TrEMBL record:
Belongs to the transferase hexapeptide repeat family. Keywords: Acyltransferase, Repeat, Transferase. SUPFAM superfamilies: Trimeric LpxA-like enzymes. Gene3D superfamilies: Hexapeptide repeat proteins. PROSITE patterns: HEXAPEP_TRANSFERASES. This is DapH/DapD/GlmU-related protein. It comes from the Bacteria. InterPro entries: Hexapep (IPR001451), Hexapep_transf_CS (IPR018357), Trans_hexapeptide_repeat (IPR050179), Trimer_LpxA-like_sf (IPR011004). PANTHER family: ACETYLTRANSFERASE, ACETYLTRANSFERASE RV3034C-RELATED.
């Protein structure tokens, strides 16, 4: 009985945040931690998580199973600052590429991702990192600016198995292991 009530409350909470932020392209299973500033055009796939205090600008696609820790920011990198004689605030903004955060990406607390970056499936970004360039799938990145630390899996078979799972149908928890 309690588990059913908890599931129902979680569903109501998800519905509330989607309606409060007017998020039309956010899947019903996405969980938003609250007190975040999220652009209305965000696309968020199944079982993604947006932690409290996140700032997400326009043109972001958050993949299935991805998690944004508290205070993550997806912003900037879009001011024209080379116009001589014009203050930056009045110089305009160029058309920017969308920011793509792949499936099963974990971005740690207070990390910053600059607009237009693509983060590959299964990547991990350490807390406090600043991502200025595209990130390869299954990479672990850390630092300012974020640099490659290691591969998430050392065994190529584990890599292939994980990427195959990510490209398939939605699966939950231990059920995923039974698919391979």
């Amino acid at each position: 009985m309690r588990a059913r009530l908890r599931r129902r409350l979680r569903w109501v909470r998800r519905l509330f945040w989607r309606k409060a932020y007017r998020l039309r392209y956010v899947h019903e299973t996405v969980l938003i931690g609250g007190a975040s500033d999220i652009s209305r055009d965000i696309v968020a796939d199944e079982y993604a998580y947006i932690g409290p205090g996140c700032l997400i600008s326009a043109g972001v696609h958050l993949g299935r199973y991805s998690m944004l820790g508290p205070g993550v920011k997806v912003v900037g990198n879009d001011h024209i600052f080379l116009k001589s004689g014009t203050p930056v605030i009045f110089s305009g903004r160029p058309k920017f590429k969308n920011t793509v955060i792949g499936r099963d990406v974990w971005i740690g607390a207070n990390a910053i991702v600059l607009c237009g970056v693509t983060i590959g499936d299964g990547a991990i970004i350490a807390a406090g990192s600043v991502v200025t360039k595209d990130v390869m799938p299954l990479s672990v990145m850390a630092g300012v600016p974020a640099a490659f630390v290691k591969k998430r899996f050392t065994d190529p078979q584990d890599e292939a198995r994980h990427l195959k799972m990510l490209s398939g149908d939605v699966c939950l928890g231990e059920y995923c292991d039974k698919l391979s």
